């Protein structure tokens, strides 16, 4: 395999780098770094700057406010955004999850209302999928949407809803036919988070950051016009959107930056053989992961859907992130345990990352589930 970027792709990378050089403040990684504390901070402002360049939804068709760029351009863009820690959190979920399902299945009215909000960087969305009894086995979800005239009445509970507390809308999956086989009785809705009957309760993660929530629905009235696609076909509609961003390049590039920042710190403290080898292993995995991401993007450019490859990338990138933070904490010694005050290295970033990264192998599909996909769809092994 030979990975080579075209002159246009190399020029695009340079354009992205120039943009980042002009638009990211040099001194933003201080003690109040917004993202370390789980706040949006100036992320919405950065989204608007991207919107002015038409770069929020790079790969979307032009008719929907995108730039119609190829998968490899998207990979280049995501790679540089992640490496430079650009704050794209305010619009990421809208671009990669909500927008694609609306483009594929939304009504004209839904597209008009939401796609413009996403590409202009002004709408904020969450994903209302997981429930206390339905995570890996999402099709077991129990939240009900019962038809009532021109509306549905939604009752039930979601959990682990990232950014639910600051979202305008959610992408909801709910059961509309309790008698159908479990994958066939599910529908999807664009859900108004401010509707009467919605209660959002905070969940604080190990690192003390409020990033996700529990969301309760008490007979919330949702107009039929907010259903996306066909009734009871929601499972299949959601699956069709998986193709939009699956390379994991952002996580590999983010970890490369993490290691690049860590290197001078651990070098100045002296390393034993174990840490030296651990750093070498981490860098090796980052490089392999980057190559894997490029090959996934080239598969997508050729019109193929990555499946086991996406699971391999997710598995590798999330375990890599965890391993990197374990090595950082170990190599920094006692200083790695201090998360606040004068003794904290880089304002406690490594301590917080170590705690926050525990969830990397759970969020977006656990490592066990990724291994199941690789074993069954990749290696053709029988299901357990
Ligand atoms: C940081 C973070 C952010 C998240 N954000 C969102 C969000 O915005 N919206 C949303 O809807 N959800 C979100 N989630 C939820 C996430 O999708 C689920 O946590 C995940 O799918 C796992 O489901 P679960 O927690 O119910 O665990 P379970 O599915 O109950 O799994 C428990 C354990 O059993 C294992 N297991 C389960 N099934 C199998 C199997 N078939 N074979 C082998 N092992 C198995 C799992 O690997 C795991 O170790 C988030 C989670 C985290 C950690």
Write a structural description.
The protein is of the alpha+beta class and 384 residues long. It folds into three domains: 7-119, Orthogonal Bundle (Butyryl-Coa Dehydrogenase, subunit A, domain 1), CATH 1.10.540; 125-231, Beta Barrel (Butyryl-CoA Dehydrogenase, subunit A, domain 2); 246-378, Butyryl-CoA Dehydrogenase, subunit A, domain 3 (Up-down Bundle), CATH 1.20.140. 44% of the residues lie in helices and 14% in strands. A four-stranded mixed beta sheet has the order 1-4-5-8. Strands 2-3-7-6 form a four-stranded antiparallel beta sheet, with no helix packed on it. Helix 9 (308-331) runs antiparallel to helix 11 (367-378). The site of flavin-adenine dinucleotide has 18 residues, from strand 1 and helix 11.
Give descriptors for this structure.
binds flavin-adenine dinucleotide, four-stranded mixed β-sheet, Butyryl-CoA Dehydrogenase, subunit A, domain 2, 384 residues, 3 domains, four-stranded antiparallel β-sheet, globular
Topology:
Elements: H1 7-23, H2 43-52, H3 71-83, H4 89-105, H5 108-119, E1 125-128, E2 144-148, E3 151-159, E4 169-175, E5 186-192, E6 198-204, E7 210-223, E8 227-228, H6 234-240, H7 249-269, H8 273-301, H9 308-331, H10 349-356, H11 367-378
Parallel strand pairs: 1-4
Antiparallel strand pairs: 2-3, 3-7, 4-5, 5-8, 6-7
The chain binds flavin-adenine dinucleotide.
